[in-house]
Write a structure and sequence with these properties.
Helix content is 53%, strand content 8%. It is mostly helical. InterPro entries: Cro/C1-type_HTH (IPR001387), Lambda_DNA-bd_dom_sf (IPR010982).
Length: 72
Amino acid sequence: MAIVVDLDVQLAKRKMSVGEFAEAVGISAANVAVLKNGRAKAVRFTTLDAICRVLECQPGDLLRWVADEPTA
């Protein structure tokens, strides 16, 4: 997948645990793990809004595009 989620970086910068973050955002710790591990297929704007509000960041601080490796 070419979209990378840097949630773990943002949590580490704020020294925030997954449990604290999940409770503040209103999502389960399992869903936080899905986001952190890059397994999410979609993120609702309401969830993204809550994440940005809690972390006091912009969506671009959480999401970045990386080109896929060319296949031979």
